[in-house]
Automatic annotation (TrEMBL):
It comes from Tanticharoenia sakaeratensis NBRC 103193. It comes from the Bacteria. InterPro entries: KR_dom, NAD(P)-bd_dom_sf, Sc_DH/Rdtase_CS, SDR_fam. This is Short-chain dehydrogenase/reductase SDR. GO terms for molecular function: oxidoreductase activity. Gene3D superfamilies: NAD(P)-binding Rossmann-like Domain. Residues 7-185 form the Ketoreductase domain.
Length: 247
């Protein structure tokens, strides 16, 4: 038996990278999983196929987490197919680094709409339909603490996610809803590859500063998410888990 047998999970931004790994791990642990995507239906379908091939149950569902109507549709369709949602993983996000001189109003709003407003709206919807409690896992980042240069807007969004994690844990705890965050270090994802971080001097610097001397893999984050979603973490809420190899 899996640690999440009988549970229903919704993972936002789950068509690739960390989100895809988390969706797969939740499915392997026994949860039925709604795999959300914003643009890559193909990627989400591949994640669903992987979960089903391993004996689990999942379906793909599109939606922009920055739009409240899309959030409502995500919850309505997931509930219609699987029943009330027990686990919410707020993973959807964007990352477009730029120095201060190249930071724009549009970039600010794009980042905050997805990375912060999306967390707020999804958490609000989850709380409205979870009378028996549940677990929310926010995917933040260690950049909220180490604040690397040229990441100003992104750093600020993840600091906001940390603040929402603490605040929502206090607000929702009396209702049996736990809210925690995972703060990964650099992780080898498609996004990191596209931005040129993998194999770069930036990667070398991260590895040199990391006690375990490597960057993370999506599965490193997924295993922490499964733990936080499970009853094994029943006494944890409002926590920021730095899954970063010691950085």
């Amino acid at each position: 038996m899996g640690t999440l047998d009988g549970k229903v999970a919704l993972v936002t931004g789950a068509s690739k990278g960390i989100g895809a790994a988390i969706a797969g791990a939740l499915g392997a642990a026994g949860a039925r999983v709604a795999v959300n995507y914003a643009s890559s239906r193909e990627g989400a379908d591949a994640v669903v196929a992987g979960i089903k091939a391993a004996g689990g149950d999942a379906f793909a569902i599109g939606g922009n987490v920055a739009h409240e109507a899309d959030i409502a549709a995500l919850f309505d369709q997931t509930t219609a197919q699987f029943g009330p949602i027990d686990i919410l993983v707020n993973n959807a996000g964007i990352f477009r680094p730029a120095p201060l001189e190249q930071s724009t109003e549009q970039s600010f709003h794009d980042h905050f709409n997805i990375n912060v407003l999306g967390v707020l709206l999804a958490t609000k919807a989850f709380a409205a339909q979870a009378p028996n409690g549940g677990s929310i896992v926010n995917i933040s980042s260690i950049v909220s603490r180490i604040t690397p240069e040229n990441f100003g807007i992104y750093n600020a969004t993840k600091a906001a996610v940390d603040a929402l994690t603490h605040t929502h844990a206090k607000e929702l705890g009396p209702r049996g809803i736990r809210v925690n965050a995972i703060n990964p270090g650099m992780v080898a994802t498609e996004g990191a590859q596209t931005l040129g971080f993998l194999g770069s001097e930036a990667e070398e610097q991260f590895v040199a500063q990391t006690p375990l001397r490597r960057i993370g893999k999506p599965d490193d984050i997924a295993s922490v998410a499964v733990f936080l979603a499970s009853d094994e973490a029943r006494w944890l809420t409002g926590q920021l888990i730095a899954a970063s190899g010691g950085l």
